[in-house]
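MOLECULE: protein
FOLLOWS: sequence and fold
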Amino acid sequence: MLIARRSMASIVKDTGEIWSRLFDHRPFIQGEITFFLREFQERRGDREVERLFKILEYSTELKENQLDRTEQLGDCHLPSLKANVDVALSMCEKVLQREQDFDSDKALQENRELRKLEWERFVNDMSDKCEKVNQTFEDKEKEIREFYVDLERKLHITP
């Protein structure tokens, strides 16, 4: 029984240690907070504050001096820029209209039909030429047979 209590106590102790390692993040978070504070207080010092004041000074200068100049330049150059953009837009619309007018499927179909007719003409022409060659061959063959038959008759050679 004493052994069971000791083993039970060690199990509870081990379980508590495992739970604290898995779920108690306080030591880690405390270290991160310390690092974060040290980073901003010691290393960076007042650099961020100085930068903010410089940005504020620069934006005030822009507001007071450059805003009027920017407005004048905009009034001067924006109408010509708008005119150029309108011209470009109308050119784009014309190109799109031409593309819509050009029915590529119809043109492709017409070209296919033309090629098909041309191919049929070629095949027919080749067939006619082959037929003429065959006819010429048969005529020559017949002529040569008749020549030899006639020659045999004249020579009185009978098979």
In short: The radius of gyration is 51 Å. Helices lie at 2-23, 26-43, 47-101, 104-155. The chain has a mean pLDDT of 83. Residues 47-101 form the longest helix (55 residues).
